Structures are given as C-alpha cells and as structure tokens.
Amino acid sequence: MKPTYQQPTERGYYGQFGGAFIPEMLYPNVEELRQQYLSIMAEPEFQQEYQQLLRDYVGRPTPLFEAKRLSAKYNTRIYLKREDLCHTGAHKVNNTVGQILLAKRLGKTRIIAETGAGQHGVATATVCALMGMECIVYMGEVDMERQKPNVYRMRLLGAEVRAAMSGSRTLKDATNEAIRDWISNPVDTHYIIGSVVGPHPYPDLVARLQAVISEEMRKQLLEKTGSELPNYVVACVGGGSNAAGAFYHFLEEPSVQLVAVEAAGHGVHSGHSAATSVLGTPGVIHGSRTLLMQDEDGQITEPYSISAGLDYPGIGPLHAFLADSKRARFISIEDEDALRGVAECSRLEGIIPALETAHAIAALGQLGAGPDDVVVINLSGRGDKDLETYIKYADAIM
Amino acid sequence: MNRIKDAFAKKQKNLLNIYFTAGYPSLHDTVPILKALSEAGADLIEIGMPFSDPLADGPVIQQSSTVALANGMNLRVLFEQLKDIRASVPETPILLMGYLNPVMQFGVDNFCREAAAAGADGVILPDLPLDDYVAEYQDIFRRHNLRPVFLITPQTAPERIRRIDELTDSFLYLVSGPGTTGGANTQAEGVQEAYFQRIEAMNLRNPRLIGFGIGDKASFQNACQYAEGAIIGSAFIRALDGVDDAPAAAKRFVSSVLA
C-alpha cells in the first residue's frame, strides 16, 4: 500500500518516517492498539459518544473568527480557528477525549501522560476526572517551574504530577519517564500521548482525533468565504498535533499552502533552538523514525525554546514527511518575535494567545500572502498559562 | 567460531552475564573492567553503548550512560578501546548492548563490521523491531557473524516467542517481569515462576538467561533454577559507584555472586 499524507502504511510509515521502534516490553500494548484503534474508532457507539463529548463538553465546533485588524496590518484575509475556546484552553482535549474512550474500550483502568507546557497534562487530567480513572502525568522539572498554573490545575483535577529529573528536565525527559512507566505497567495502563509522535499507531491516531479542526475549518470557510479551501493554513509545531489537525483535511489539496512554524529559540544556529526541520536529521526517538536533533554520534541534542510546548528535539513522522517532500513549508521563529506575536494578537484582536501559538502569529509577515488570499491560523491555545512568562518579558512584549 | 554457543556448551548451568556501561566510571575503565570481569569468572559480558535516552533502562544505567557520554565515550572510542581485547580475553563472549539510533547514525553495516573486528560476538538492541531486523539487518548481522539477542517478556505471546527463538542462534533474554532495568521485582513469586516454567515447557532451541531485577547471589541462584543463567547490570553499576579501583571492585562483585 502506498502511503498518502493522510494515511500511513499498515506499519505506520509516511515515506521513510514512522514505524514502531519499541522495546519488547511495549510490543503487546502497542500491537493491541494498532490492531484495534481503527475498528474501535469506526464503531457507531464510539463515534456517538465522542461527537457528543466534543459538542457538549469540549465546546465544539470552535468558531472561525475573521481577524480584521490583523488582516489590515498584513493586507490579507486572516481567520483564527479558535481552539483556545476549547474546554481546558487548547486543542489538546480533542485528542484526550478520544483516547480516554479508546482506553475504556481496551479495558484499561490507569492513564499516564507526558506534558510540556501542561496543556496536554491538563486535558488528560480532565478526561480522567470525567471518567473516574487514575491519572499520572510526567512533566519535566523545568517545565513544572515555568508552567506552575497548569501543575496546580492537574492536581486540582485529581492527577498525580511526577517530575522528570533527567536530561534537560523538559518534554523529552517527561516522555522517557512516561514510556518507562508504561513498560512497568503493561497490562492495566493506557498511555495517552499528546502529540503526533511515538510509535505507530499514535501519530495516526492523534492526527485522526485532531482532524476535527480542519474538518470544521472547511465547513466554516465555505460559509464565510464561499470556498472550502483557504490559500494558507498556518500552525505552530512542537511535536505537531495542532498542525496535524489543522492540515489534515487539506493534505491532499495541493492548492492549499501548509505552513508549519517551529521555535528557533535564540536563533536557529545559536545552539539554543528547537527548529527540528532545519537542524534535524533522520533518526529514532520515542519509538518512531523521524527528523530529530542529534549529534553525529546519534545522541539526542537538548532543544531550547521559550515555549515549553515547542521545546522538543523531534517532530512527528507525518511532519517529517511533509518537510521532506516539501508539501509543507517550515518557518522558524525566534523567542523575541514570538513575544511580539503575543502583543500583536492581544492588542489587535483582544485575544491573548499561548506562547506556542504566538510563533504562528509571528510568521504572518513571512507568508507572502496577498490581499485576496485567505489565511487560517490555528489558534491552538490561550495564554493564561503563560502569564508569568509574559510578566517576566513585559519589556519585550509591551 | 561462536564464543556464545561455546560458552553455553562448556557450562550448561549457572552462567553469569554481567552488564556494564562503556566509559564508566571513567573513560578508560572499559578494558580494565572487562578483563577483571572475565578473570573473576563472568561467563558472558555485555558492554553498554551509552545513549542519551535509554528507554528500557532504569535510573542507575541511565545515570552511568550520562556520565560515560560526558566522559567522551562514543562508538569510535569504544571500538578503538576494544581493538586488542581478544589477546587478553580470548574466550569470554562479548555482547554490545544499546539503542538503535547511535547504531543507525554510525551505519548498521559499518557498525557490524567494526563490532566484529573489535571482537564482539553478539548485539542487543532493545528498540530494534523484529520485522525491521528481518527485513533490513539480518543479512548484515550474518555477514559479520554477529548474533542478535532478543528480549522476551511475560506478555510476549507464544507464537512470537517461537519466532524469536527461530531467529536466534545465541540465547534468549528473558525479562523477569514488568519494568525497566534495576527495578525492584514487584511480581508475586508464583506469577514469575509460572512464566519461567511456561517458557521452559516450550522446549526452545536456544538457552535462556534471565535479566532485570537480578542483583546478588540469592537472586542469581533463584533465577538459575529456571534458566541456564542470569544477567546482572544495575547492581554491578552501583558496585562501581565511588570506588578508586574499578577492576578490583569488579572482581569483588563477581566473587560475591558466584561464591
């Protein structure tokens, strides 16, 4: 079977990227998931419960908002897909609602997750509370410090937050710890991965659950512009779940330019960056073959970004394929520009975005979009969780 | 010649396999520790190739890898260190254990050639999928006479165990229970016993070594009741902690297990 952008091979490959590179200890879990995820997700009862929760609990469909002042500034037509209005404040919950239903059907009683900015951790803790399931979230010690409100949110929701103390003590290390937990608890535990990373079927599973974003975009664009297809879809990429969701139903539409925005930290080549599509080479991380930041010996390099959610040394295999095949254009945005993106979105539209999303906004000037072009930015999350950082960098923002 | 098969032919019971991380505690300890382990009576030796993100390992081995990487260990250095090893350690099988990514970056064919030239007999890569091994790497391994070792866990299905056994010509690595290396053995004894007996009853072609959670004489002897021998890693790494004379500590450790 030839893979498409939307559909990996049976073994989870998008071109040369993907697969399931996992120790034998995880093989039964991952294989069980691989064999069952598509059929479970196709069940009418699953779909009914999932769609109902998306509507009544998450608050979908999220609006597609015409950002007139931003549009005037950039002399193009900009729409914001308001994932920040989802319950828990970001797109992450689309995935956790779906995966908790999957976990229930697989007979699992305990949920683990990793989190960087804390948005996925909060979304996981939320659905665990909803379903009465035990929840353990791994988070890098550094991220716990810079995303304190989300740590408290998770605890309030009844989750146990465990600090990952190894490596750079950020998202990569939290992921390592979560995988180790899963190895130690192979029977009763489901690992809710928060992005389109990890061994197959996770990248495809998470992309399908986030695809609701682009599905809604098409309907809303038709109503608002008379065409289902925009000229540009722009989204930030750490692991890449919000981008995968925003791109999904446009992947096979060549007229739509897909723009993935990465965190360049202090500068792509400064040694403090997370711009994987530029700095990465093919390798294996967290169970899949993808583009990752590594040294010549294959040791994984510590990434850096001001934004905890983009601070990851790899990208999902679908995104590696999109970069490799040039189907998507990748733009790198430095910390300072992202902070200006925060100011711009806040002042011009009255929406305080998450730091991750601010990278996408900061890329607007580089698109080359004309006055008649329709640009959709996936506003992946809201900035409440980043307020401490915004206060710290007030000079750069104001 | 196959040193792994020879070792099992020579001593059919109670084989001790010791794991240590190359370049730990200091960069040039690799060869002295290897010699000391062999002299003290270790039947097989696993040399860990340090990796920044070792998924199947617990904190002890991860920490030793972090130190080894900071010391400057990498595959080129390791192969250089091992190049004359067979002059002083002629018979003890040496296995290289690590993760796929550093091996992929080195080039799998290149890696196998250099590993064989350095005297290695087998390779353990826990995150190398069985299907990928068969499709892409089996011929390369064979060409360089390197034996792959695969892990089996309590959750591995019988037909998969048979397939692993068919693909193996060295030994089967029985992971004692759920968990990463160096973890406490939390399984009820009866459960573990039933798992080992289930594997034993399958009458597999290859001998078995039990690993994970084995750390001293008592746990070694217990494991040896159910297999041809056992593997010790984290407990040995801990025994190297803060010692001045790593080879002497290695000898003391092996003696304490085999005594």
UniProtKB/TrEMBL annotation, chain A:
Cofactors named for this entry: pyridoxal 5'-phosphate
SUPFAM superfamilies with a match to the protein in the record: Tryptophan synthase beta subunit-like PLP-dependent enzymes (SSF53686)
Record's keyword terms, sorted: Amino-acid biosynthesis, Aromatic amino acid biosynthesis, Lyase, Pyridoxal phosphate, Tryptophan biosynthesis
This protein's pathway: Amino-acid biosynthesis; L-tryptophan biosynthesis; L-tryptophan from chorismate: step 5/5
Record-listed N6-(pyridoxal phosphate)lysine modification sites: K92
Catalyzed reactions per annotation: (1S,2R)-1-C-(indol-3-yl)glycerol 3-phosphate + L-serine = D-glyceraldehyde 3-phosphate + L-tryptophan + H2O
EC number: 4.2.1.20
Protein name: Tryptophan synthase beta chain
TrEMBL record, chain B:
Keywords from the named record: Amino-acid biosynthesis, Aromatic amino acid biosynthesis, Lyase, Tryptophan biosynthesis
Catalytic site positions: E46, D57
Leader sequence segment: none
The organism's place on the tree of life at top rank: Bacteria
Endoplasmic reticulum among keywords: no
This enzyme's EC code(s): 4.2.1.20
GO MF terms, alphabetically ordered: tryptophan synthase activity
Pathway: Amino-acid biosynthesis; L-tryptophan biosynthesis; L-tryptophan from chorismate: step 5/5
SUPFAM superfamilies given in the database record: Ribulose-phoshate binding barrel (SSF51366)
Classification via Pfam families: Trp_syntA
Catalytic activity as recorded in UniProt: (1S,2R)-1-C-(indol-3-yl)glycerol 3-phosphate + L-serine = D-glyceraldehyde 3-phosphate + L-tryptophan + H2O
Family assignment from sequence similarity: Belongs to the TrpA family.
Function as written in the Swiss-Prot or TrEMBL entry: The alpha subunit is responsible for the aldol cleavage of indoleglycerol phosphate to indole and glyceraldehyde 3-phosphate.
Assembly description: Tetramer of two alpha and two beta chains.
PANTHER family in alphabetical order: TRYPTOPHAN SYNTHASE ALPHA CHAIN, CHLOROPLASTIC, TRYPTOPHAN SYNTHASE, ALPHA CHAIN
Protein name in the entry: Tryptophan synthase alpha chain
Naturally occurring in which organism (per UniProt): Hymenobacter canadensis
